[in-house]
């Protein structure tokens, strides 16, 4: 089992309000990859939710958003800005 945190450095303010984004230095969501590859994500924004995905690839296809300056940090790694 591995855990991770996703930061988003540049979420567009014209499409995401304060309920949908955190400050650039705060995590947007955290998650876990289970031994069978299933991924669970917990949003840390004002409006919180939890979702489960079949794989990391599936989750990142929807929530990866490189255009938002997304940085995925695995537990034990330093945050790279």
Topology:
Blueprint: E1 2-8, E2 27-33, E3 39-43, E4 50-53, H1 56-63, E5 70-74
Antiparallel strand pairs: 1-2, 1-5, 2-3, 3-4
List keywords for this structure.
1 helix, 81 residues, single chain, globular
Write a structural description.
Strand 2 (27-33) and strand 3 form a beta hairpin. This protein has one domain (2-74). It has one helix at 56-63, and strands at residues 2-8, 27-33, 39-43, 50-53, 70-74. The protein is globular. The protein is mainly beta and 81 residues long. The model has no long low-confidence stretch (mean pLDDT 92). The chain has one helix and five strands; from the N terminus they run ββββαβ. Helices cover 10% and strands 35% of the residues.
Mean pLDDT: 92
The end-to-end span amounts to 25 Å
Query: Which overall shape is indicated by the principal axes computed on the Cα atoms?
Result: globular
Order of helices and strands: EEEEHE
| Largest beta sheet: strand ordering | 4-3-2-1-5
**Strand residue percentage:** 25-35%
> Biggest β-sheet: count, sense, barrel?
5 strands, antiparallel
Any idea what the radius of gyration is?
12 Å
Helical region count?
1
Overall helicity: under 10%
Question: Structural class of the helices, strands and pairings?
Answer: mainly beta
Number of strands: 5
Q: Which spans of ≥5 residues are poorly predicted at pLDDT below 50? A: none
Number of domains: 1
